[in-house]
Amino acid sequence: MDPDPLLSRATRYTTLAAGTEAVAELEIKRSRFLAVVRRTATEAEARAAVDDLRRSHHDARHHCSAFVLGPDRDVQRSSDDGEPAGTAGLPMLEALVLRRTAAPAPDGDATDLSDVSAVVVRWFGGTLLGAGGLVRAYSEAVSQALDGATLVTRRRQRLYRLPASHADAGRIENELRAAGTTVLDTAYGAAGAELGLAVPDDDGAVAALRSRVSALTAGAGDLRPVGVDWVDSPAGRPH
Hints:
The chain has 239 residues and is an alpha+beta fold. It has helices spanning 43-56, 89-97, 130-147, 166-178, 203-216, and strands at residues 12-16, 21-28, 31-39, 62-69, 75-79, 116-123, 151-164, 182-189, 192-200, 224-234. Helix 2 (89-97) runs parallel beside helix 3. The chain is elongated and about 75 Å long. The mean pLDDT is 91.
């Protein structure tokens, strides 16, 4: 279940694109490290990711994990899974929490990655790496996975429905998209069409949308609010 947008202090955060995962593999002194980063919205989903990889790679000695959840990143957990305390889970968590993302201007780069879990599976190669070596290996494995991740910006948005005739729906949708309005969907029915729209949770953005709709419909557009929710949009680039 998505976090309640009305309870969050944040208005945006960065996460992995839905349905994707990021993977990296490295070998150090014959120990093999496989990092898998996934989008997870709840602790149950994050723990299920660990269980999934434990089943898939049951021959590995360690399945270390870390996750960060919520728009405000207020849920943070990690596990060393048998590695010396502080050498696996915590470095992995720091790799997630300190990750710089391509936040939109005027913010520039930000550390706002959330709703993500990382699992690093380790096959022991017979040579001890020492505490420092383990910290570097687990941190680097997660960082390399994130290097290839497809990221999205998740914004708190106000949602609206806009009825339109079949004849006008396509034109209105195209004009709104061209003006930068997020069009979530257009539903066509026997009586007409209905556009699903999203704008930032900001009075100024709503006023601009109302003005735009009024101009496109000669004042006849009935913009109907349907709530507030989190909506994905491209984050610009992996970082």
